[in-house]
Amino acid sequence: MRATVMYGAGDVRVEDVPDPKIQNPTDAVVRVLRSCVCGSDLWPYGAMPASEQGRRMGHEFLGVVEDVGSDVPGLTSGDLVVAPFLWEDGTCDFCREGLHSSCRNGGQWGLNGVDGGQGEAVRVPQAQGTLVRLPVGEDSALLPSLLTLSDVLCTGHHGARTAGAAPGRSVTVIGDGAVGLCAVLAARRLGAERIILMGRHKDRTDLGRDFGATDVVAERGEEGIERVRELTGGDGTHAVVEAVGAEQALDMALGVVRHGGAISRLGVPQYQKGPMGMDTIMRNITFTGGVAPARAYIEELLPDVLDGTIEPGRVFNRTIGLGEVPDGYRAMADREALKVLIQP
């Protein structure tokens, strides 16, 4: 089969690799119908050291079960399923607590002999705990929105939820990428009264308004902080979702959060130290967020996707074939595309 392999910064190739097969009784093999490029894929795309072996790419996919191991009850060949961006057993103590991202027997796609999602098929370890059946057909128009359950929608929901988005509360979302836009959608779904989106790309912030943003702030740094303060009577917002991962974004989050508020960090951090001094103590600021336990949220969010209450698939603004994946990475890195959908 063909799959995406990254050999270093800017070096993405689509190559022939071995077909996936059942290796353990808890495995399943899934034929991929849709996958995509994630904003987090752009960090290695910009900085990965050159490698002769390469790294299989992709952690968001949905598809059709082709084969199942002997210890995978409840799944059969032909089932349409979505996979969260980490695989997990669903039974360990962390999974039972809803923290599937810390599963004791889980792992990441594309590492240690596990296939990546940007390919024609995937061997899924711990398939019973990982895969979620979808009650639609292979030709459903909902596939792009259902694909967002693998990562971006659940990650945005995680940020809004952990930051405390709720009726009567205000939220600032920093970053107009796909995760930030899904955080806006999630904050609206959770009932937030005011949602301020900080972003400067009009096509993206226009979508953010459609998703529920009540205000858009294009300014950055101190100017952006001042503008959010003006919009909130000088106080800032109860909740802040930082969906960038840059130190400047964290500084802005601290500048726009209300006393007693919470900052949820979703962006993959490109810094090692953060401001944890007297200011955050005196203002009773809570830092939360982190890697979303996507598997814990899929059943909660699925009904709203199925009935069209939310349309997170609108974050995909370019669709490509598997052979075009290298150009898809380039388009996202150059800000020509918000999020690229792959149809093998």
What does this structure look like?
Helices cover 29% and strands 24% of the residues. It has 344 residues and is α/β, with parallel strands linked by helices. Strands 3, 5, 6, 9, 10, 17 and 18 form a seven-stranded mixed beta sheet that branches. It has a six-stranded parallel beta sheet with strand order 13-12-11-14-15-16, sandwiched between helices. It is globular. It starts with a strand and ends with a strand. 51% of the residues are buried. The mean pLDDT is 96.
Computed Rg: 20 Å
| Strand count | 18
β content, as a range?
Answer: 15-25%
Helical coverage, percent range: 25-40%
Low-confidence stretches: none
Q: What form results from the Cα inertia axes?
A: globular
Q: Summarize the main sheet.
A: 7 strands, mixed
Number of continuous helical runs: 12
Distance between the termini: 11 Å
**Mean pLDDT value:** 96
Order of helices and strands: EEEHEEEEHEEHEHHEHEHEHEHEHEHEHE
Helix and strand content put the structural class at alpha/beta
Brief write-up:
The chain is α/β, with parallel strands linked by helices and 344 residues long.
Offer a few descriptive terms:
seven-stranded mixed sheet, 344 residues, alpha/beta, six-stranded parallel sheet, globular, single chain
